[in-house]
Amino acid sequence: MGVDLRQVVAGVLTLTMFVMLGNMIKRDHFDSVEGKFPGARDVEFDSEKVSEQGLVTFSKKSTNGPWVEGGLDLKPCWKESNFDDVESKGFVTFSLTNGPEYHVSQIADAVVVARYIGATLVLPDIRGNKPGDERKFEEIYDVEKFVKSLVGVVKVVKGLPEDVSIRDFAVVKVPNRVSEDHIAEQIEPVFRTNSNVRLATFFPSVNMRKTTKTSASDPVACLAMFGTLELQPEVNEVVDSMIERLRTLSRKSDGRFIAVDLRVEILDKKGCHGSSATGTKSCFNAQEIAIFLRKIGFGKDTTIYLTQPRWDESLDVLKDIFPKTYTKESILPADKKAKFLESEDSEFEKVIDFYMCSQSDVFVPAISGLFYANVAGKRIASGKTQILVPADIPGTSSSVTNHFSPYISKKNHLAHSCFC
User: Fold this and answer.
1) N- or C-end of the chain: fewer Cβ atoms within 10 A?
2) How far is CA 260 from CA 70, 179, 276, 330, 388, in A?
3) pLDDT digit string, tens, across residues 388-400
4) Residues with Cβ < 8 Å from 335, sequence gap 6 or more?
5) What is the pTM of this model?
């Protein structure tokens, strides 16, 4: 019996169509899922495939991993000359809390509020998680830079006049990324009545995606978030020395290193659970991070910095695969350990981690949340766009271009509204 070639061709075409349809359904399903950390909503913690010919340029120097060259050199979209002076009437006070990833947003909200209501901003103090754990702003950040950057935007003073008591301040709650409508309806009336207000910022979500809605306060928020905070010289020197140490240890990778936000305590508290539908996860442990990095092409000589405060035995599996894996205690200058490693929950350690992750060649967030979101913002502002979101990869390998953060691949981070 002869074979009808037309039937064979038709069969092949039908099979091909089913395969294509299956891939489309699978792709749409995965793209619609956004991994979220328990208690922290609206975080871009899904990975996104990007074109190797478009968004990224691979380094031609290194053969020890899929290192990507730096991104575009962006410039601020805001112009400081466009800010009109505002007469100050009364004071706004606030505190920086919960670590540098929150400080960035708290500063932005306070500056936006103070400018809108025409108040003088009082330099904030810094408060830790434990009662009595307070520091002066200048212990961590550069006061001169902060004050100078806000000239013409809001007036900043280091403290209240002697005739003004903090006890007389009305406390108002401020949602992160506060809107002008909220200020006009909820904060300004209180300020007009009391002349002085104390802000308490809360985070109904950790959404750092840009929006299509614009307002007159956007340039002020951008300046406050990305143009005001710098580390004071001693802290900055410590971070620089740690980065230099890691680059020295990374000679086989042309001085490049990866920073991974992986904190065992948070993993233990929150758990790392996959989505029942897709296997998408909100956090990854040391073994999963090690396997992920190997499967996307990083070699055993790759240098890795972990945000984990002290070494934990659960990290041994990562060090077995990547021997050059370090926590801050092993690379911090010896003469600085007494001050900067005073406790596992110190503000100094949090700040070091935030800036190490912001300046590394590659950033891998093993945990979703505001730390990831605001580190991403700083990296976008400085052109360091290699942010890789982990995944459980089936098979033996995957292209690094499949795992770029949506903040980068979709350019949907708030920072993309602030830099051009």
Assistant:
1) N
2) 18, 33, 26, 16, 10
3) 999 999 999 999 9
4) none
5) 0.84
